[in-house]
Design a protein that fits this description.
The chain is an all-beta fold and 357 residues long. It is built from no helices and 32 strands. Helices cover 0% and strands 48% of the residues. The protein starts with 23 loop residues before the first strand and ends with a strand.
């Protein structure tokens, strides 16, 4: 597998793939149980709390130290998205019932908006000034109190992912056919830029240094744009659709989860064109979640078998620890201090796992 300007290669995986050796069972600090598949979970910016939601429609705010939870208003058709603002400290919850709800850290409700279509993605601007919501074919931008600032309704298909640039000036919206950039601070109600690509984009990731935008796709490829330089790279040939990808905090490495392995691309300098990625092998089934530590170069990957693996991909292609949570993992994320890992499962469990840097 290599990064090219056109699709040309498929991953050449070893015929006898290694299997992750489990270090032991997961021993959480605490466990919170929801009624169904946990579809979304996120830490508060200060690490003192977290929010989680399930496909049964439950949404809760929980204490990070104890797991004691406060219920929020339910979304009867299921919670699809969550986002916690680092600027205002407010929590946004989106559901398949087409509702967007905002809460204070205490759980006190602030507003409840009907957006006309299920709210599949939410993203706060880094400074908390704006909240972007994907609702069907529209992108709705509100202020921290829920007042609508802009509505961008003319996408040709469902908006599947949202991501802000690191400065918080522009938000990218993905759909079948490419990516559109919007600047809510401007009065205009049209896109300020567009990255065209004929395919179905499932997930976006923006590098913190604002150099790269990556897209994971239904056609088993990763598209990578060098922003401001009119360069478009493609990493094709994965064995399944790509919905798990993330840049590390330094912007150098892009991790991409697949079936049986994760690739880590080096995006330093001119980027990964013509290079091959580091393979992190051993997961037998699909990688369902991945997360970089906030400090250092540690990466966690988790899979449909319930295995959670810690890696140092810049140094080694072998995991330093593998834990078994016993059921399919749906999300994983590090607390800001990296001393706890939030893991959620398809059976409704929310776990806080202790970790070290």
């Amino acid at each position: 597998m290599s990064a090219t300007d056109t699709a040309s290669t498929r991953p050449e995986m070893p015929s006898d793939e290694p299997v992750l050796a489990v270090s032991g069972p997961a021993e959480p600090t605490w466990t919170l149980t929801l009624a169904d598949h946990v579809s979304a979970a996120v830490w508060s910016p200060d690490g003192t709390a977290l929010a989680a939601g399930s496909l049964a429609g439950e949404a809760v705010i929980a204490d990070a130290a104890t797991g004691n939870s406060t219920p929020l208003s339910p979304h009867p058709l299921g919670v699809l998205s969550l986002a916690w603002s680092s600027g205002s400290g407010r929590v946004a919850v989106g559901g398949q019932d087409a509702r967007l709800a905002l809460y204070e850290r205490s759980g006190r409700p602030l507003c409840d908006l009907g957006l006309g279509a299920w709210v599949s993605a939410l993203a706060w601007a880094p400074d908390g000034r704006y909240l972007a919501a994907a609702a069907g074919r529209s992108v709705v931008v509100t202020d921290p109190d829920g007042a609508v600032v802009h509505s961008y309704p003319e996408h040709p298909s469902t908006v599947t992912s949202l991501v802000w640039d690191a400065r918080g000036r522009r938000v990218a919206a993905a759909f079948y056919g490419g990516v559109r950039w919007y600047e809510p601070g401007r009065a205009q109600s049209t896109a300020v830029d567009q990255l065209k690509w004929k395919g179905s984009i499932l997930a976006l990731a923006a590098s913190p240094d604002r150099r790269w935008l990556a897209a994971g796709n239904q056609d088993r490829s990763v598209q990578l744009w060098r922003l401001g330089k009119d360069r478009h790279l493609e990493m094709p040939g994965y064995p399944a659709k790509i919905d798990q990808l993330a840049f590390d905090p330094t912007s150098r490495y892009l991790a991409v989860g697949s079936v049986g392995f994760t690739t880590v691309w080096d995006c330093a300098g001119r980027g990964p064109e013509g290079s091959t990625p580091r393979l992190l092998e051993g997961h037998v089934r699909r990688v369902t979640a991945l997360a970089w530590q906030h400090q250092g170069e540690g990466l966690v990957t988790a899979d449909a078998d319930g295995l959670v693996a810690w890696w140092d991909p810049a140094r080694s292609g072998r995991p330093r620890q593998v834990l078994d949570v016993g059921e399919e993992v749906t999300t994983a994320s590090f607390r800001l201090d990296d001393e706890a890992l939030l893991v959620t499962t398809a059976c409704g469990r929310v776990l806080s796992l202790p970790t070290t840097r």
